[in-house]
Design a protein that fits this description.
mainly alpha; 5 helices; globular
Protein backbone atom coordinates (compact mmCIF):
# COMPACT_ATOMS: atom_id res chain seq x y z
CA UNK A 1 0.00 0.00 0.00
CA UNK A 2 2.17 2.85 -1.27
CA UNK A 3 0.92 6.28 -2.26
CA UNK A 4 3.32 9.02 -3.38
CA UNK A 5 1.30 11.80 -1.80
CA UNK A 6 -0.15 10.40 1.43
CA UNK A 7 1.96 7.62 2.86
CA UNK A 8 5.68 7.02 3.08
CA UNK A 9 6.84 3.45 2.76
CA UNK A 10 8.53 2.29 5.99
CA UNK A 11 11.94 1.80 4.31
CA UNK A 12 11.78 5.37 3.03
CA UNK A 13 11.09 6.65 6.53
CA UNK A 14 14.21 4.82 7.75
CA UNK A 15 16.26 6.49 4.98
CA UNK A 16 14.85 9.88 5.95
CA UNK A 17 15.90 9.37 9.57
CA UNK A 18 19.43 8.48 8.47
CA UNK A 19 19.84 11.60 6.29
CA UNK A 20 21.23 14.79 7.84
CA UNK A 21 18.70 17.48 8.76
CA UNK A 22 20.57 20.16 6.81
CA UNK A 23 23.60 20.58 4.59
CA UNK A 24 25.51 22.05 7.55
CA UNK A 25 25.08 18.80 9.50
CA UNK A 26 26.08 16.42 6.72
CA UNK A 27 29.28 14.38 7.07
CA UNK A 28 32.03 15.78 4.88
CA UNK A 29 33.45 12.48 3.72
CA UNK A 30 33.85 8.81 4.60
CA UNK A 31 36.64 9.91 6.94
CA UNK A 32 34.08 11.23 9.42
CA UNK A 33 35.71 9.27 12.28
CA UNK A 34 32.76 9.65 14.66
CA UNK A 35 32.58 13.41 14.02
CA UNK A 36 36.29 14.11 14.50
CA UNK A 37 36.98 14.43 10.77
CA UNK A 38 34.12 16.88 10.33
CA UNK A 39 35.29 18.88 13.35
CA UNK A 40 38.84 19.07 11.95
CA UNK A 41 37.69 20.22 8.51
CA UNK A 42 35.39 22.88 9.98
CA UNK A 43 38.27 24.12 12.15
CA UNK A 44 40.57 24.38 9.10
CA UNK A 45 37.88 26.12 7.04
CA UNK A 46 37.54 28.77 9.76
CA UNK A 47 41.31 29.11 10.21
CA UNK A 48 41.93 29.74 6.50
CA UNK A 49 38.76 31.88 6.18
CA UNK A 50 37.24 29.69 3.48
CA UNK A 51 33.58 29.78 2.49
CA UNK A 52 31.06 27.40 4.00
CA UNK A 53 29.45 24.83 1.70
CA UNK A 54 26.09 26.64 1.65
CA UNK A 55 27.86 29.88 0.62
CA UNK A 56 29.75 28.11 -2.17
CA UNK A 57 26.53 26.55 -3.47
CA UNK A 58 24.80 29.94 -3.49
CA UNK A 59 27.74 31.55 -5.32
CA UNK A 60 27.82 28.72 -7.87
CA UNK A 61 24.13 29.25 -8.57
CA UNK A 62 24.71 33.01 -9.01
CA UNK A 63 27.36 32.12 -11.59
CA UNK A 64 24.82 30.07 -13.54
CA UNK A 65 25.47 26.56 -12.23
CA UNK A 66 22.32 24.43 -12.29
CA UNK A 67 21.64 21.65 -9.79
CA UNK A 68 19.56 18.62 -10.77
CA UNK A 69 18.22 15.95 -8.44
CA UNK A 70 17.74 12.39 -9.62
CA UNK A 71 14.01 11.61 -9.70
CA UNK A 72 14.65 7.89 -9.07
CA UNK A 73 16.79 8.58 -5.99
CA UNK A 74 14.20 11.02 -4.65
CA UNK A 75 11.46 8.40 -4.92
CA UNK A 76 13.59 5.62 -3.42
CA UNK A 77 14.46 7.77 -0.42
CA UNK A 78 10.92 9.12 -0.04
CA UNK A 79 12.07 12.71 -0.62
CA UNK A 80 10.63 15.57 -2.62
CA UNK A 81 12.21 18.60 -4.29
CA UNK A 82 10.35 20.85 -1.80
CA UNK A 83 12.38 19.38 1.08
CA UNK A 84 15.57 20.94 -0.26
CA UNK A 85 16.73 24.47 0.49
CA UNK A 86 14.64 27.09 -1.28
CA UNK A 87 17.87 29.09 -1.77
CA UNK A 88 19.34 26.31 -3.90
CA UNK A 89 16.23 25.83 -6.07
CA UNK A 90 17.27 22.45 -7.51
CA UNK A 91 15.51 20.99 -10.51
CA UNK A 92 14.75 17.31 -10.89
CA UNK A 93 15.09 14.97 -13.81
CA UNK A 94 15.23 11.31 -14.69
CA UNK A 95 18.33 9.38 -15.72
CA UNK A 96 17.65 9.65 -19.47
CA UNK A 97 17.09 13.41 -19.27
CA UNK A 98 20.24 13.83 -17.21
CA UNK A 99 22.33 11.84 -19.67
CA UNK A 100 20.94 13.84 -22.56
CA UNK A 101 21.72 17.16 -20.84
CA UNK A 102 25.18 16.04 -19.73
CA UNK A 103 26.05 15.09 -23.30
CA UNK A 104 25.57 18.73 -24.36
CA UNK A 105 27.17 20.36 -21.30
CA UNK A 106 30.75 21.53 -20.92
CA UNK A 107 31.14 20.07 -17.42
CA UNK A 108 29.06 17.46 -15.62
CA UNK A 109 29.53 16.31 -12.03
CA UNK A 110 27.50 13.33 -10.85
CA UNK A 111 27.45 12.93 -7.09
Amino acid sequence: PYSDKHQIYWLQSIFQKMLPKSIDRAPLSRMNMFGLGRFAVIKLVKRYKMQKLCEMLKEAQELGVEFYLCETSLKLLGLSVEQFSSDLMPKWCGVCSFLSMSERSQITLFI
